[in-house]
Design brief:
Blueprint lengths: L10 E4 L3 H6 L4 H8 L4 E7 L4 E6 L4 E5 H7 L22 E8 L4 E8 L1 E11 H11 L1 E2 L2 H4 L17 H5 L9 E6 H6 L1 H10 L5 E5 L14 H10 L14 E4 L1 H4 L28 E8 L2 E7 H11 L1 H9 L2 E7 L20 E7 L2 E3 L5 E4 L16 H15 L5 E6 L4 E5 L3 E3 L11 E7 L1 H19 L5 H4 L4 H8 L1
Parallel strand pairs: 1-9, 9-10
Antiparallel strand pairs: 2-3, 3-4, 4-8, 5-6, 6-7, 10-19, 11-21, 12-19, 12-21, 13-18, 13-20, 14-15, 16-17
Helix pairs in contact: 4-16, 8-14, 11-12, 12-13, 14-16
């Protein structure tokens, strides 16, 4: 059966920066939302100044606590973005003596009083900033406002991410995928392109970055330096391995690679898999593989597409893969105590360590979206599957692994020297690259955790918003919950 929307040919397209896509109108809706000012129509203090009622020009109206308005002003923080005082703010009892919209409703001025005239203070607020917070902290005053209010009794459900909208609207892909491709040197100079790249890591979840630099050597300490330095400027620091001295690993051609184990032996077939399957929680969210030497051909597979296919055509199998836990486990014996590869450290004591991770192959979030794929047949441990479901589960698992290898779900691409393939390791699976005969290949790999990725995207979106509207600067955009910040930066 063919999956709806899955084609038969993969092509490679050169990536374009976010600024170019905006100019072409691809993100015109987001741009309009980011540049439109939601002005204040009227505002006044109520209940002896303990609250403030604000009506916006879109006819929505909310009641704010005066204490919240005062506590939220960035003047209470220093240049380090920390609060200037450790004294609990709410020990003071500020009331709103007067409120007044000005500059055509784009700002609000609030006169606060606190017991004595010496404590009186006047602050200014941007209307867009207040409007972004209104559905979360305000009490709706009319029906129009009730339709936009956050009705959760306990407030926000968690940290969230500025990438949540993209995550919830991801599109499955197959062999027809046009691989996003970027130039590394151009990306270093263009923060809009960096945003574009980071958002593509959520959907479609993979991209190639060319031209990131040539290493000075191919040893295990120097081969990955161009990748490490590039990513340090684009996203952040790579995860530190538990035993390896470097933050990146190095795989040479099979004459050396096979000495490190089956995972590194290019004669050994390697099915579609995700990395870090044996690490509890799968800390490697973004995966980077850099061709330090040699050009190859490789393939990737969209776990979301295969999962959606199973959900549609084999719902019982899908249920088993999302609810029954199996185990991935191994003992890592690759490194020595000094952090070097054991094969290169004769006479040095080994630094073996155990790894185990028990989980569903497909993890769903609270809303039923596919959150994470964890798949590696070579690292599948001895799972404690209940007797009564063993046969049925293994049937579902075999169907899943077979589908991962079908050509309609694979995108093949060229992977040139000095380029890096980047994958969302919670979504995209990869297989063994095809190395041309007589090719000396050195491949470098590394990972970055989810929080580093999301918060780098947050910082870049804040900077982008500041460029569009310098008035609402870092003082106003820092310390905001992601769910509120989303309305100010997109």
């Amino acid at each position: 059966m063919a999956l709806k929307g899955i084609g038969s040919k993969c092509s490679v397209v050169r990536g374009i920066g976010a600024s170019q896509r905006l100019a072409q109108g691809v993100s015109s809706f987001r741009m309009m939302g980011a540049t439109r000012t939601m002005k204040i129509a009227s505002a006044h203090a109520v209940n002896d100044g303990r609250q403030v009622d604000i009506e916006f020009v879109d006819k929505t109206a909310y009641r704010f606590h005066t204490a919240w308005i005062k506590d939220a002003h960035p003047n209470l923080t220093g240049s380090d973005y920390y609060r200037k005082s450790a004294k609990t703010f709410f020990e003071d009892q500020y009331m709103a003596e007067r409120v007044e919209p000005f500059e055509d409703g784009s700002k609000l001025q609030v006169w606060f009083k606190n017991c004595s005239i010496d404590n009186d203070v006047t602050e200014e607020y941007f209307s867009d900033w207040l409007k972004a917070f209104a559905p979360f902290v305000g009490s709706p005053l009319n029906e129009a406002s009730k339709n936009t209010a956050n009705t959760a009794a306990n407030g926000l459900p968690g940290t969230g991410s500025l990438l949540d909208d993209i995550y919830k609207n991801r599109k499955p892909w197959g062999s027809e995928l046009q691989m996003p491709t970027f130039d590394g040197q151009e990306m270093l100079k263009d923060e809009d392109m960096q945003i574009d790249f980071l958002e593509r890591m959520m959907d479609p979840g993979c991209a190639v970055i060319k031209n990131i630099g040539k290493p000075d050597g191919f040893g295990h300490t120097e081969a990955g330096i161009p990748m490490e330095e590039f990513l340090g400027k684009i996203i952040g620091r790579l995860n530190q391995h538990p035993a390896r001295a470097t933050r990146f690993g190095v795989v040479h051609t099979q004459s050396r690679g096979e000495l490190a184990g089956a995972d590194y032996d290019h004669k050994n077939p390697l099915s579609m898999h995700t990395d870090h399957s044996v690490y509890n929680g799968t800390p490697g969210y973004l995966q980077f593989m850099y061709q330090a030497q040699g050009s190859v051909h490789s393939r990737v597979c969209d776990g979301l597409a295969v999962a959606e296919y199973m959900k549609q055509h084999h719902p019982e199998d899908y249920h088993l893969l999302t609810t029954v836990h199996l185990t991935h486990s191994s003992r890592n014996c690759i490194y020595a105590k000094n952090g070097a590869y054991r094969r290169d450290a004769a006479g040095v004591e080994g630094a073996s360590f155990e790894l185990v991770h028990t989980h569903p192959v497909l993890t769903l979030d609270k809303d039923g979206h596919l959150e994470k794929v964890v798949q590696s047949e070579t690292k599948r441990g001895i799972s404690a599957l209940p007797f009564d479901i063993y046969d049925r589960y293994m049937e579902a698992y075999r169907r899943w692994t077979n589908l991962l290898e079908e050509e309609r779900f694979k995108c093949e691409f060229d992977w040139p020297e000095h380029s890096v393939i980047v994958m969302n390791n919670w979504r995209v699976l990869h297989g063994r690259a095809t190395v041309p005969p007589n090719t000396q290949r050195v491949m470098v790999f590394g990972y970055i955790m989810k929080s580093i990725y999301e918060n780098r995207h947050r910082l870049l979106k804040q900077r982008q918003a500041e460029r569009r509207n310098p008035d609402i600067n870092d003082r106003w955009l820092t310390r905001l919950p992601n769910q509120v910040l989303t309305h100010l930066v997109q």
